[in-house]
Design goal:
This protein is an alpha+beta fold. The protein folds into 2 domains: 1-56, no CATH class; 58-121, no CATH class. 36% of the residues lie in helices and 17% in strands. It contains 3 helices and 2 strands; from the N terminus they run H-E-E-H-H. The protein has helices at 4-11, 62-79, 99-115; strands at 22-31, 47-56. Helix 2 packs across helix 3. The longest helix has 18 residues, at 62-79.
Length: 121
Amino acid sequence: MNCPGAMLVYKDGMHSYRDLPLRLGELGLVHRHELSGALHGLMRVRCFTQDDAHIFMTKDQITDEVLGVVNLIDEFYKMFGFEYFVELSTRPENSMGSDEDWEDATNGLRAALEKQDLSIR
């Protein structure tokens, strides 16, 4: 997924394949005003800060970049004693992009998870 803000930052300058991977992180303030009863409990907030990250990469960098993110998450989760499981999301019916791009991305994700020896649900 590419968020508009990250796309604008990337689009602001010229980039070569030699610049990749380009890793961007942001803390964004999200405001909302739902109707009464739309949300409940602690989830009913007016604004919150959402941390977000985007990695612009070539197809051959997918596995290594995903491994880097998985290793970072794993390190923090273990530090705090959190357990987690991984689900591999695949191409939805109403997706955009070519079959080839989706296949490359899915295979890159799967390869990274297998290298990390994570069981996939």
